[in-house]
Write a structure and sequence with these properties.
The protein is built from 17 helices and 18 strands. The chain is an alpha/beta fold. The structure holds adenosine-5'-diphosphate (ADP).
Length: about 525
């Protein structure tokens, strides 16, 4: 069954589109949720634009105070949020807590505590500016209306990652959550209820609703999703010159060094590859292991793989894939790899719960014998398939990691953390974990989150994540009222001599020439300023 595609509903008016909320653990359709008609998206943006100046006029501390109510609403609705995320994404309840509810609360709390300070005016060059007869201040201005377009894998947290800093910064937001997880979209709508109308509006729907949001147009777009959609959005946004911040996933590598703590590395990599059934933008999709520890690492990983419990009822360790299109990609990658000579070392589709009534289970699978011509080597799998690749040394691992332009994170496993730091510095990615999974960094509220190359640009989360939603407005103020500026008309001889003197003073080598230049300035500046009209 195709989940959450828009389709006409007989229960609604002829034109209404319905989104399906589907439980991939059971195959059960849970409910149908009306999509926002495409024609209403521009209206939502217009309303957001109308209320934005008022929202921005509330000082940052006041906004933080109001947004605290959102955090408290999450407390009130926690059971509902966990159950909805867990059943609609197909993930264990523990993961709905680890990677949706808890990091969201951390993100909000961090912004409540720090946003006002981060958004304080800056005074660049406070000593130098008065020499020019003016003082400078940088004021951080919100863009206006932010359009946030978010995915289905961590539908609660990743929506919040895009929305929360934008709101704290004084923007209003129109959020389009993924059509694959519309019930989580409704949860988000409810937790933002304490905010004044129009400050955060949820529009539900598929790509057409997202495209209408980009085209409304908004003043800034925050997008988290696939590279293909990211490209489309960047192109559409470019037509309006709308700036975009985007996080697009990756084909992230784990590098297991010869001196790795193998028990630690196998536990970490197991989680990094299979959390959320591998449907994680920063999932470990390639394991480069030093050949000297490859056997020990592999048997440790496989032994732990066998101990994973399937979360059919929501309790347990591993969930189902979220929707049919994603299941089909994983199955295609698996079949293609097997046909081309890959070997299954552990797991595989014949393990774990078998699919009935439309459920979408695919057991975590470890493979080897992977070659470059396989789909899983060339594309993001976004599922529970991970290959082990033996390497001669760490140099080969670094080279092969960096050959891929699609690294959101990377991880290095070594007992020598100094060496880990040195290797990390050579990796081209947005976050590096040393003896920790890079994806875990997404939950750290004070750290920037985002990629490089095909993994996207700009940052969400942390100080940089907040600054992504403001632009600097430079305010200059004359401190010599009544005195006209040297660079105003007319450009008489005295003005030219003063300007020349200043340029020479700042560029001359040696003291004597600087003194000559200073003398020329002193001789001409008075007459230059008196001559201004
Ligand atoms: P995936 O391929 O993993 O499902 P997508 O990148 O297609 O993820 O989707 C991420 C988000 O982007 C979703 O909310 C989706 O509805 C939205 N989206 C898809 N196509 C477009 C588009 N052309 N313009 C704007 N948003 C889109």
């Amino acid at each position: 069954m195709f989940v959450a595609q828009t389709k006409s509903s007989k229960r609604q008016t002829a034109k209404a589109q319905m989104l399906t909320s589907f439980n991939p653990r059971t195959g059960q359709v849970m409910r149908e949720i009306p999509a926002t008609p495409v024609a209403e998206v521009a209206e939502a943006v217009a309303t957001a634009r109308k209320v934005q100046p008022e929202w921005a006029s509330i000082p940052p501390r006041g906004r933080a105070h109001m947004l605290r109510e959102v955090r408290h609403r999450i407390y009130d609705k926690l059971d509902d949020i966990v159950e909805t995320v867990s059943s609609e994404v197909g993930k264990p309840r523990a993961e709905a807590l680890i990677s949706d509810a808890l990091p969201t609360v951390l993100q909000l709390l961090y912004l409540e505590r720090t946003a006002a300070k981060t958004l304080r005016d800056e005074r660049p060059a406070p000593l130098a500016a008065p020499f020019l007869g003016m003082v400078s201040r940088v004021r951080w201005q919100p863009f206006g209306v932010v359009g946030a377009i978010t995915p289905w894998n961590y539908p609660f947290f990743l929506s919040m990652m895009a929305v929360a800093p934008a709101l704290f910064a004084g923007n209003t937001v129109v959020l389009k959550p993924s059509e694959v997880t519309p019930a989580v979209g409704e949860c988000l709508r409810e937790v933002f209820d304490p905010l004044p109308p129009g400050v955060l509006t949820v529009v539900q729907g598929a790509g057409d609703v997202g495209a209408a949001l980009v085209d409304a147009p908004c003043d800034k777009i925050a997008f988290i999703g696939s590279p293909a959609t990211g490209r489309r959005i960047a192109e559409a946004a470019a037509r309006h010159l709308t700036p975009v911040v985007m996080e697009l996933g990756g084909k992230d590598a784990a590098i297991v060094c010869r001196d790795a703590d193998v028990d630690l590395a196998s536990s970490g990599v197991l989680w990094g590859a299979f959390v959320n059934a591998g449907q994680t933008c920063a999932a470990v999709e390639r394991i480069f292991v030093h050949e000297d520890v490859a056997d020990e690492f592999t048997s440790s990983l496989l032994e732990k793989l066998e101990r994973l419990r399937f979360a059919q009822s929501g309790d347990g360790d591993v969930g189902a894939l979220t929707f049919k299109r994603q299941f089909d990609i994983v199955e295609r990658h698996y079949k293609d790899a097997i046909e081309k000579g890959a070997r299954v070392l552990g797991g595989g589709p014949d393990r774990g719960p078998q699919n009935e009534n439309g459920s979408l289970w695919f057991a975590p699978t470890v493979m080897d014998g992977i070659s470059d011509d396989m789909d899983m080597s060339r594309e993001e799998t976004f599922g529970p398939l991970v290959p082990i690749v033996r390497v001669r040394d760490e140099e080969e691992a670094i080279r092969r990691t960096n050959e891929e332009a699609f690294n959101l994170t990377a991880t290095v496993w070594t007992r020598n953390t100094k060496k880990g730091e040195a290797l990390a510095a050579r990796l081209r990615c947005g976050a590096v974990g040393i003896n920790e999974i890079g994806a875990a960094a997404s939950g750290v509220p004070f750290a920037p989150w985002g990629g490089i190359g095909e993994s996207g640009y700009g940052r969400l989360s942390g100080r940089q994540g907040l600054m992504e939603f403001v632009y600097p407005e430079h305010v200059t103020k004359k401190v010599t009222p009544g005195l006209k500026s040297l660079w105003w008309y007319p450009y008489d001889e005295a003005t030219q001599a003063t300007l020349r003197g200043a340029t020479e003073l700042l560029s001359a080598p040696g003291v004597k020439r600087k003194v000559d230049a200073a003398r020329s300035i002193a001789a001409n500046i008075g007459s230059a300023l008196r001559g201004k009209f």
